[in-house]
Amino acid sequence: MAPKVRIFDRRIHLPKSKPMRIGLGTILIGGGLLGFLPVLGFWMIPLGFLVLSVDLPAVRRWRRQFTVWWNRRKDEKNVDGTEP
To answer: pTM for the full model?
Structure first.
């Protein structure tokens, strides 16, 4: 079974091979660092970390902490009434 990552409501299939996923994530982050060039973009950095989070526990922990922070922030705005 191929691993999947979820971005918003979409699920994206990743390669079955662990070295391929790590290579893909590394290439995305490296390309994102060159985001000032045409074609490449800074959007590649978070996508690379998302791919790496499937296999690397430290990156998975960062992703989970960011998700918890984001949801708490969103909930606080909803409680304050600043967003519908």
So the answer is: 0.74
